[in-house]
Design goal:
34% of the residues lie in helices and 26% in strands. The chain is of the alpha+beta class. It has one domain: Alpha-Beta Plaits, CATH 3.30.70.100. A 6-stranded antiparallel beta sheet has the order 4-1-3-2-6-5, sandwiched between helices. Strand 2 and strand 3 form a beta hairpin. Helix 3 runs antiparallel to helix 4.
């Protein structure tokens, strides 16, 4: 995996998208598993949240690998209305210590617990705008009953290599 350097050779993309159709919990879990396997193989780290309608994802690592992921995302029939919040080089990874993390909001005692968990998960993020984007998404999402989170510095999974 690429280590951060002061030369800014770590590339970062943060995007939001809207699901073009309702995704069952199994579909959301499948996206997380496939993303984990593909992104781990490419040395990418990051975070992805899904609130039942919208995704927010940060990816960081090699620029060519991220561009390949984004090409798959933009051609994925499940994604629409893609908006970029960041698309640039950074000097260090913000999610460099993440391991696979997936949990339904229903698995917590309340939506507030999900929000508090996201706040704790991004506490080490140094980029205040990036931190605010994920906390803001979690605030809006906490009113929904289906929330999914994936950390993207993964353990091996058994899914195929086809998705984000």
């Amino acid at each position: 995996m690429n280590e951060p350097t002061p030369d800014g050779d770590i590339y970062q993309v943060v995007y939001m998208s809207r699901a073009k159709h309702a995704l069952a919990d199994d579909d959301a879990q499948d996206i997380c598993r496939r993303s984990a396997k593909t992104n781990q193989a490419a040395g990418l780290t990051g975070l992805m949240l899904f609130d039942g309608e919208r995704f927010i994802q940060a990816l960081e690592g090699d620029r060519a690998a991220i561009k390949a992921v984004m090409k798959r995302v933009t051609s994925d029939s499940r994604h629409g209305s893609i908006s970029y919040l960041a698309d640039h080089f950074v000097t260090s990874r913000q999610f460099g210590n993440w391991s696979m993390n997936y949990k339904l909001a229903d698995d917590t005692s309340s939506p507030q617990d999900f929000l508090e968990r996201v706040k704790a998960d991004v506490a080490g993020v140094q980029d205040i705008a990036l931190k605010a984007a994920f906390i803001g998404f979690a605030v809006l999402a906490s009113s929904r009953s289906r929330i999914h989170a994936c950390g993207l510095n993964w353990a091996a999974t058994s899914a195929s290599d086809e998705d984000q």
